[in-house]
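Lab notes, practical 5.
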Amino acid sequence: MTSSSKSSVCGFLPRVRARLLAGVVLLLLCCGIAAHGQQVPLKVAIGSSHGLLLKTDGAVWAWGSNACGQLGTDDDFAAIPVRVLGLGTIRDIAAGDCFSAAVGSDGSLWTWGGNRYGELGDGSRTSSPKPAQVANLTGVMAVAAAGEHILVLKSDGTVWAWGSHPTQREALQPVLVEGSHGITAIAASERHSVALKADGTVWVWGDHGLGDLGDGCYNGSLVPQLVRGLADVTAIAAGQELTVALRKDGTVWTMGYGTAGGLGNGSFENFSFKPVMVAGLTGVRAIAAGNTHVAALKSDGTVWSWGYNHDRQLGNAAMREEQYAKPVRTGTLTGVASIAAASNHSAAVTSQGTLWAWGQNDGVLGVDPEETYKVDVPMKVGAAVQGDCWALFACQTARGKVIRLCGDRDDNDSDKWHNIQYRYGPEYGPAELVYPQDPTKGPPAMFFSEEESRGDYRVTVRFTSGAFTYRVYSGPKSGAGVEVIDGKGKTIADIECAEAPGIYIEYLKMNLPCDPQGPRGAAGCQKQADKVK
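Output from the prediction step:
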């Protein structure tokens, strides 16, 4: 494996544009994999629509979409992880777009799921929902997967690949990556592959296109090439158009596509041919990369992310930008043991075994994608997410959270509203505060009243039973916010808004009864009725 072979292949491959969904796998050093008989470290891996969890007992669990049989079960969908049967003790896992792979403690490799491009490595194109051992492949130490492509690292330091990838012919069985030797860790994207050697150097091959090789060459390489400018690397990750490296000193370095902020160095430059250091990030012990976003796990158990944020894959509700070029804290996660990223979403598992996911939802969140298509803060996998509803008023807080009063109106009875509910939490995802918890048991109607004094404006809505009162206020005197008052007059929530609440006052006037006990009394209600006439 030498850099001298670059001249013979640079410019050989045409530039292949990336597809939207790119599975990405983070592989740590092989020395971090437990030997036979020892406890296996917790690990999470995700593809474009499903996830895998490797528990400390060596068992594999899967969740999400099962369109190709990638969960190893007969179910169409699993909201929470289910045990993958037919496997022995496992020490490493990987998830592709529609298939799964696991490394046995005896060095065997097992695959299951979709096989349209030969991903399962069995010489056929026949999919299988049950794990099967890849024949004639032994001494496997680690596995990586992305899209319809798979890599394995053997104990002799060689790398083998198969499936569909821009830089190789479609292979239905394992093929040796030419020039690979002395490798200790691997990572894969749909466009390129990355390897780490024991001496801390990084080697890359594939249709990188935007400087992932760090060599100033616009096209790709069929054989591994040395990335200049990187040393003392301990872990690697591969994004769709990004190469990410973690150095021994806890700093993170990136190269490749930077327009979406994926370089993490504070710039939005088109690309960087040379490795650049991620700004203000130290003490990192693990990394993962999605399409154009990156996640980092610090030694204190917190997660930080940067890059593309259109689908809220940074996991920070306060970040409204669609691209962010510096690391931001991902939710309030603590005690995280492993992270993963793929496509436009990420996942994490805590040392207690709790699974979290955030970003775009094609099944990785453990909820129906048709009901919840993304969340902007980490949510527990499989947690119930309340669907959208008609918002009578809404506002955003300074911390990026959203306040809504939602309900369902009976078309046949315009002044009767059902399932009235106050929600506070992220714009996308489960609410943090809800009143009442079960809106179906609430009264079927409410009154409203409005008041304006000294520039301040208030709209009050309350249940006919007086169970809850919701007061929306805005003005120079009181600021802006929403109060929640229970039936005994106790304030149970008073949250400020960063903007004037959007109030559908005209809709309220037309469809909800005026409250004769409000500030303007019965006379005010009559005046309002006269205006409507």
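Observations recorded by the TA: The longest helix spans residues 521-532. Helices lie at 6-9, 505-511, 521-532.
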